[in-house]
Amino acid sequence: MRHLLSIEDLDRDAIERIVARAARFAEVSDREIKKVPALRGRMVLNLFYEASTRTRSSFELAAKRLSADVVNFAATGSSVEKGESLKDTVLTLSAHKPDAIVLRTPWAGAAELVSGWCSAAIVNAGDGKHEHPTQALLDVYTLRERLGAIDGASIWIVGDVAHSRVARSNIIAFQRMGASVTVAGPPTLIPRGIEALGCDVRYTLAELASADVVYALRMQRERMSETWVPSLREYAAWYQLNAGRLTPRQVLMHPGPVNRGVELSGEVLDSPQAAVTAQVEAGVVVRMAVLYELLAGASAPSPRRRGRQIAPASDRARTGPGAELSDAEGVPDAAIFGMQDGA
Ligand code: NCD
Hints:
Blueprint: H1 12-29, E1 43-48, H2 54-65, E2 69-74, H3 86-94, E3 100-105, H4 110-115, E4 121-127, H5 133-147, E5 154-158, H6 165-176, E6 180-184, E7 200-202, E8 213-216, H7 232-239, E9 251-253, H8 266-269, H9 276-296, H10 303-309, H11 313-319, H12 333-337
Parallel strand pairs: 1-2, 1-3, 3-4, 5-6, 5-8, 6-7, 8-9
Helix pairs in contact: 1-5, 1-9, 2-9, 5-6, 5-9
The structure holds N-carbamoyl-L-aspartate.
N-carbamoyl-L-aspartate (NCD) binds near residues 54, 135 and 165.
């Protein structure tokens, strides 16, 4: 895997591989020293043109737990405010030779464009209304932890599907893992033709009881240029997920940030059926697995990059010969997890 631009690029085996590695990284998070040397000497650049709490902090933490160096760039307070374009910003920051760029922008397709402008591995951390593949991966991980298997589960994605990159990535990922997916919401917020992705569509919550998992989406007002529902109060009256509409056996998910009292009632958000905090926790280990896959896996390095990926002899001796270059699957656990002295 060279980049992670879209969940479409990952077949079921690849998703399983990333989720399995994330589970092994979860063990690192329980250690006193929460760090392994797997990406020592690599540089990860977080390039964020949009607000983010969970995604940015978990990518930063993931890179640091793998001992990579991290540079955080936020468009606010940067030369972007002086008119610098995305391309010139990427070329400028590429002078620091990042091995990976984690990119969030309001522009659909931007991650793919950037992958053509520089040699770093690109991770799409959200491109406009298009995709958010690491969110889909962490949601698969979270559901696996909750349900054991996703095969055969009925998953309802409820709310503002039209403006949601999470919905697009998750519809694909959940189905690849064997679930059946239904999207539900007001007709104005369900894109026409979305059935082409393989999901069912409902415009009311009348059959919500058939869902094993209910995945709520935020009303994404920052992406709406006009009014799509009469009012948020009206939306909540018809589509809010609350104790009257959910049964306790259903797993409740939300990518965050939640508009408490709009798409979710405070009561269900604070209840044990909500997996929202588990999703945030999963974000760190899943992003560790993605960065590891891109930067330490066998297929990633091009000949030019290979030179920089070979660890100094002293490191090789400690992590096992060839550990930095061999297929991640073939690297003994000790090489990835055994070290606690990564700086
Ligand atoms: C989502 C996003 O930004 O796409 N949040 C996230 O990454 N956790 C969903 C949202 O903003 O509603």
